[in-house]
Structures are given as structure tokens and as C-alpha cells.
Design goal:
By secondary structure, the protein is mainly β. 7% of the residues lie in helices and 61% in strands. It folds into 2 domains: 143 residues, no CATH class; 34 residues, no CATH class.
């Protein structure tokens, strides 16, 4: 009998801001909160099965790396069970995460950038990857393998000009928020 469980819980806040009750004077202002997507495939390659040493080396590298490649969030739960009687294996992966991104100019803040640009932006993009697997083998009886993965995600992406905040002079002003 065997079992494996992998759990990832993350609660992240990304914030770029100018505090409340501030006065900013300059030639331009850019405030950005960004969560960039990390998405790369696995490093798993070999030229030929004829070269068993190279194949074995590539499997050894895989044992210490992420099977699905790089990402912002990752969980893997893999296991096996075997024997001469009943063999049972269960693998479960759970990933729960929340991202909050905020770009803000605080309450009662005054911004003067003359003819320059003033911009607020918040951008969220991420990749979550999960892998679960179970392998069971028995020489004389039943073998059962069960695996499951659960991913729960929530988030908020905000770009905000605070209460009573003023852009008194700017050649252009933009306020954007995007989430993928």
C-alpha cells in the first residue's frame, strides 16, 4: 500500500503605489504592478534509445526536476505500490492560490507631470501546472491505482486612482488593469 499527497497554498499580494497625501512633481509617472507568466516546457530530451546511458542520464535529471517544466504554480504527486498480495496506491495533488495585484495612487495625492505621461497599470498572467499519477502492481492479486488533482484559483487585478487624488497636469493619462 502506498500514498502520496502534495499540497501548495499561496496567497500573494503584488503592489506598486504612491502613498496617500503625497504631492508628486516631475516629467512623467509610471506605476505598474505585474505578475509575469512563467511557462517553459520540461527539459527532457534524448537522441536515441540505442544510447541507454544517455537515456538513463536524462531520466535521472527528470527525477530532480519539474516533470511539466517551469510555471508560476506547480504541484506533482506521484507514487507506486507493489507486492505479492493486493497493491493499492493513491496520489493526490492540491493547489490553492490567490493573487492580488494593485497599482495605485493614494487618496488625496496630487500629481503634476507637466506635458509628460502619467500611467497606472496592473497586469496578471500566470500558468498553473499539476501532475498526479499512481502505479500499482501485484504478482498474484488485484492492483489498484488512484490519482486526482484539484486546482482552486482566485485573484483580483486593480489599477486605482485614490479618492480625491488629482492629476493636475499631464500630456496623457492612462489607467489600465488586465488579467489573463
Amino acid at each position: 500500500m502506498g500514498g502520496s499527497i502534495a499540497v501548495v497554498v499561496a496567497d500573494k499580494d503584488y503592489e506598486a503605489s504612491v502613498g496617500a497625501d503625497s504631492t508628486l512633481t516631475g516629467s512623467a509617472l509610471s506605476i505598474s504592478a505585474i505578475n509575469r507568466k512563467i511557462d517553459a516546457g520540461p527539459d527532457f530530451s534524448f537522441g536515441s534509445l540505442d544510447d541507454l546511458d544517455a537515456f538513463a542520464d536524462s531520466l535521472a535529471d527528470l527525477a530532480t526536476g519539474k516533470l511539466l517544466g517551469n510555471s508560476n504554480y506547480y504541484v506533482e504527486a506521484i507514487g507506486g505500490a507493489g507486492g505479492s498480495g493486493v497493491a493499492v496506491q493513491g496520489s493526490f495533488g492540491v493547489m490553492v492560490f490567490s493573487d492580488k495585484l494593485t497599482a495605485a495612487v493614494g487618496d488625496n495625492t496630487t500629481v503634476n507631470v507637466g506635458t509628460g505621461a502619467a500611467s497606472l497599470s496592473s497586469s496578471a498572467d500566470f500558468v498553473a501546472k499539476a501532475l498526479s499519477g499512481a502505479l500499482s502492481a501485484s504478482t498474484s492479486s488485484a492492483a489498484v491505482g488512484v490519482s486526482a488533482t484539484v486546482i482552486v484559483s482566485e485573484g483580483e487585478t486593480v489599477s486605482r486612482l485614490g479618492q480625491n487624488a488629482r492629476i493636475t497636469s499631464a500630456g496623457s493619462f492612462s489607467n489600465t488593469a488586465s488579467a489573463k
